[in-house]
């Protein structure tokens, strides 16, 4: 197919390559230097893909930002990794203007639309997309595969989001590995539904490009829109997270979709068995791949479709060109059936967390089982997730060791939610927790005390502030008032006690 499609428009690979080179030239014209960061804050469209690949072609590092993020989260990322050039739209720039002073390294903004009447303060270069890509050729930048290519931001269990640094080698090997087990081919038409800021979403276009297939970009409003586009574009490959699958299986599926939809994939959480059964009934000829991944290693495991009926709860085995181990706390291998930490080694292991040596040291450690004589040991990702392995080598997810909330396919840091709550001035103390939810995976519940001097919480005001300052998936479902918070012996809020009381109230085991 060799195409990129969006809203009925088509760019063949030759046209896309020329646009990418125009973007690279535009970035060099703005003075972008090797390894400097380029933020791309747009929904999925041609400019998004060209901006991403153009940044890499210019010798820079692309930083895709989820278009659902609000100004607070966007400016944190721009500041954290010192983004020099931002590619965005006029409406998104308008939402950022009041916070741009917090991004001292930003020097230029490229807009996919008309320039605003009220220009940015002095010190910024502001260009329209057309002027940006019309600056002419520029000399190619020499790169090697171990150079940085991208920074994908993902929430951690504590603190602010962390930037996972990926090399060109990581990206290329990952695309080849995934396209290999999915058996991608030039005839495929792959629908890119998930955000390109999500490694899983980006994988839809990188695997398509690897085999010369067609990638179809989509920004959907309703689940039924996905079904319509599957039929209209005769999609052969679709990847979604569990909350979207839950909504999709409730739609009416034209029988014709099953004639061309060759495979579907799931990651970002466990596929509920009833949803999997419904999906199999709707698409009896379609191959189902259940997967597990880490942004820190792009992708880790997959369950072959022929094993889905026999092992619907398994996350499978290691993807091609990777090794996944289950180890005890001392790093020794676990016995079959014994829970342990999932450790991933191989060429997909990323370069660590941007500008964060402490958190990198927590997750990136020498791979177990290496000969003692190796002076520079290979580093592996220690996931923090507990899994077990059966006698046949298939892996099963057990639990997360951290306090991450997994909602709507996104990883949400409780601390990040709490920081916004405190900024509102509407709470005294606040704790964000996740509770099981059939549709979301987990829903965010906030337990909070009233601010000093007030008799009660104003739940409506808190939620209104959250909707203004947070992407929709991060907004708490419920604000629950407490008179005081339980404490542990160190005087800190006892989050575990709160979680137990909340789960008991919610009827969870």
SSE arrangement:
Layout: E1 3-6, E2 9-12, H1 13-29, E3 37-41, H2 46-57, E4 61-64, H3 71-80, E5 83-88, H4 90-96, E6 108-111, E7 125-128, H5 129-132, E8 148-154, E9 162-167, H6 168-181, E10 189-192, H7 199-211, E11 214-217, H8 223-232, E12 237-240, H9 242-248, H10 257-260, E13 263-266, H11 273-282, E14 287-292, E15 301-303, E16 317-318, E17 323-327, E18 340-345, H12 357-363, E19 364-366, E20 379-389, E21 395-400, E22 405-407, E23 410-412, H13 414-424, E24 430-437, E25 441-448, H14 459-469, E26 478-481, H15 495-505
Parallel strand pairs: 1-11, 3-4, 3-5, 5-6, 6-7, 10-11, 10-12, 12-13, 13-14, 25-26
Antiparallel strand pairs: 1-2, 8-9, 14-15, 15-16, 17-18, 18-20, 19-20, 20-21, 22-23, 24-25
What this model shows, in words?
- The structure is a single chain.
- The protein contains 15 helices and 26 strands.
- By secondary structure, it is of the alpha/beta class.
- Among the domains are: 132 residues, Rossmann fold (3-Layer(aba) Sandwich); 101 residues, ANL, C-terminal domain (GMP Synthetase, Chain A, domain 3).
- The strands form 6 sheets. A 9-stranded mixed β-sheet has the order 2-1-11-10-12-13-14-15-16. The chain has a 5-stranded parallel β-sheet with strand order 4-3-5-6-7, with helices on both faces. Strands 17, 18, 19, 20 and 21 form a 5-stranded antiparallel β-sheet that branches.
- 47% of the residues are buried.
- The mean pLDDT is 92.
């Amino acid at each position: 197919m060799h195409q990129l499609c969006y809203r009925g428009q088509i760019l063949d690979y030759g046209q896309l390559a020329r646009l990418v080179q125009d973007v690279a030239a535009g970035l060099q014209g703005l003075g972008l230097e090797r390894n400097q960061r380029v933020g791309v804050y747009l929904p999925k469209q041609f400019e998004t893909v060209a901006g991403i690949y153009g940044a890499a072609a210019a010798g820079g590092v692309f930083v895709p930002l989820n278009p659902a993020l609000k100004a607070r989260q966007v400016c944190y990322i721009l500041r954290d990794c010192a983004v020099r050039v931002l590619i965005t739209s006029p409406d998104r720039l308008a939402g950022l203007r009041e916070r741009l002073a917090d991004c001292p390294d930003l020097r230029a903004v490229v807009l996919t639309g008309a320039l605003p009447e009220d220009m940015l303060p002095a010190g910024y270069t502001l260009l329209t997309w057309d002027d940006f890509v019309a600056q002419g050729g520029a000399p190619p930048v020499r790169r090697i595969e171990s150079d940085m290519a991208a920074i994908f931001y993902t929430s951690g269990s504590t603190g602010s989001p962390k930037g996972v640094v990926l090399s060109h080698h990581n990206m290329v090997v990952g695309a080849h590995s995934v396209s290999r087990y999915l058996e991608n081919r030039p005839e495929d038409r792959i629908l890119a539904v998930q955000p390109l800021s999500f490694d899983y979403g980006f994988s839809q276009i990188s695997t398509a490009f690897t085999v010369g297939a067609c990638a179809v970009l989509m920004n959907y409003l309703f689940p039924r829109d996905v079904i319509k586009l599957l039929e209209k574009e005769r999609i052969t490959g679709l990847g979604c997270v569990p909350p979207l699958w839950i909504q999709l299986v409730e739609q009416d599926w034209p029988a014709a979709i099953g004639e061309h939809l060759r495979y579907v994939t799931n990651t970002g959480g466990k596929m509920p068995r009833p949803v999997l059964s419904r999906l199999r009934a709707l698409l009896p000829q379609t191959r189902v791949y259940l997967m597990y991944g880490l942004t820190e290693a792009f992708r880790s495991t997959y369950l072959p479709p022929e094993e889905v009926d026999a092992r619907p709860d398994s996350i499978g085995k290691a993807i091609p060109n990777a090794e996944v181990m289950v180890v005890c706390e001392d790093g020794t291998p676990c016995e079959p059936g014994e829970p342990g930490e999932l450790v991933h080694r191989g060429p997909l292991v990323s370069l660590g967390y941007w500008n964060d040596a402490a958190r990198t040291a927590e997750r990136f450690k020498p791979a177990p089982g290496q000969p003692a004589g190796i002076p520079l040991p290979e580093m592996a990702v220690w996931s923090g997730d507990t899994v077990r392995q059966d006698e046949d080598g298939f892996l099963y997810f057990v639990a997360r060791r951290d306090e991450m909330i997994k909602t709507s396919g996104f990883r949400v840091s409780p601390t990040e939610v709490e920081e916004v709550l405190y900024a509102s001035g509407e709470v005294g103390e606040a704790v964000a927790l996740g509770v099981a939810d059939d549709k979301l995976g987990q829903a965010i519940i906030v337990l909070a005390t009233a601010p000093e001097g007030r008799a009660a919480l104003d739940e409506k005001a808190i939620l209104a502030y959250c909707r203004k300052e947070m992407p929709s998936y991060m907004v708490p479902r419920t604000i629950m008032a407490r008179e005081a918070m339980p404490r542990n012996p160190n005087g800190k809020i006892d989050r575990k006690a709160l979680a137990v009381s909340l789960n008991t109230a919610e009827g969870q085991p």
